[in-house]
Amino acid sequence: MAMRFVIPVLGFLAGVTALPANAQPFDSDARHAILIDATNDAVLYAKEADAAFPPASLAKLMTLAVAFDDIKRGWLSPTAPVKISEHAWRTGGAPARTTTMFARVGSEVSVRDLIRGITIVIANDGAIALAEGIAETEPKFVERMNATAKEIGLASSVFVNSTGLPAPGQQTTVRDLGRLTQRLATKYPDLYPVFAEPEIDFGGVRQLNRNPLLGQYAGADGLMVGSAAGEGHMIAASAVRNGKRLVAVLAGLPDDKVRLRATTALLDWGFDGYIDRALFKAGDVVAHAQVFGGTQGSVSLVTEEAITLPVPKDGNSRIVARVVYRGPITAPVQRGDRVGVLRIWRDSMLQREIPLAAAEEITEGSLFQRAFDASYELIAGSLHSFIEKLFPSV
Hints:
By secondary structure, the protein is an alpha+beta fold. The chain folds into two domains: about 5-20 and about 280-390, D-Ala-D-Ala carboxypeptidase, C-terminal domain (Peptidoglycan synthesis regulatory factor (PBP3), Domain 2, Sandwich); about 55-230, 3-Layer(aba) Sandwich (Beta-lactamase), CATH 3.40.710.10. The protein has helices at about 10-15, 60-75, 85-90, 110-120, 125-135, 140-150, 175-185, 255-275, 365-390; strands at about 5, 30-35, 40-45, 80-85, 110, 200, 205-210, 220-230, 230-240, 245-255, 275-280, 285-290, 300-305, 305-310, 320-325, 330, 340-345, 350-360. About 45% of the residues are buried.
């Protein structure tokens, strides 16, 4: 019977006792907000981060994620021509009077230019045309959007179109958008810089990049703004300073001026108020996990990379770390097998989840050892079930 084990982290408390308990000293003007240290994959700030709202134009980030992935896999060529359909022109082009790159109906536009139209001026005609170029129809492309969203862990997002134009049932959260923004900024280094291009001149119309941070905030290099009736203004932003990338997503702001001010304040708080604290070196033993039926009763769990955690420079924080694994782990165990996860909280907010690997090989034990372990597992399983009923949140 597999059980969920939570075990102590070796030497961890000795490394963080200098950090007493804290109250988070910042409050964003946004209704929903999240700040992610993308370099450490750590959440620095969250406010109503799991509350759902319509994504508006930020849905185009999901459209771009699908396109970027297809390009990276070699399934889609940036130079491939796409015909601008009547649907793309009428729904997202000049007749719709929304954000558009003014692509002419019936003309052919390269994938690269469609992506530029989406990233620079949030073009609805560009998003629909790109969707049709990849999947023939926009509804088929939306299936790809939702499948990809599920694959990358966007647990609360549902997409109904490629543009984010109002549609029943379409929703997301700033946590999901933060994860998506982080993916775009880090997974596609050859494609991401298009977000920072200052302008586009297409169809005889010159338009400037609509991201208000570009040229105004040091290190800003993306991504996109939007607005939705009843939900106000929103933004997905990213900036890099001294090799550290922060990702900020804010929604529920009253106007574009407050949006700019609130985004700048949140990014400043992240860059100026945190330092990286080393927790473990690559290969450090973090904990020991039980092994069933092996030549030894436990296996050392190690980190495969150095682990750092951003902590407030002049504030106080309470750091908690736990190792979770399903076990007892059944022998044989190969060195390098991923058998557990290290979870680190700061001030009750989950910061990081790091996979842990077996540090050594453990072969199957004798018949006597396996019989002894089976008896132990039966007793431990009953005890563990009783404890989980008393303390379900552990």
